[in-house]
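Revision sheet: structure tokens.
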Amino acid sequence: MPEANSNTTLKRLRNHYRMVIMNDDTFEEVIKFRLSRLSAYIALSTTFLLMIGLAVALLVFTPLRYYMPGASANTDTRRELQTLKMRTDSLEQALKYKDVYLNGIKQVLGADDVLRDTASLKMPK
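Predicted:
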């Protein structure tokens, strides 16, 4: 009866295997490798990490980074966008104030085409 501990995971990882790539027509061996599961896992992990590293380097060190959302060209552009956003917000607020003011004047003058529902035009805080 075989021993239960002889087939441990570490032992299976260290067992050597032969991988042969053959020509299907002539059955000639093109390439043969002698490797273990551990070396295969290490090779695949290293390849995976290198691919991720190359992709990150491509995005960080090339102009492709400008196509990613949230990555602006420089701080001047970001500051200019913030200024434009603040200006837009203040213009929207000023427009709401003027609409409320004009509706008030129309109500005082008794115009017929005044919006009766002014709940949507309340003064912004």
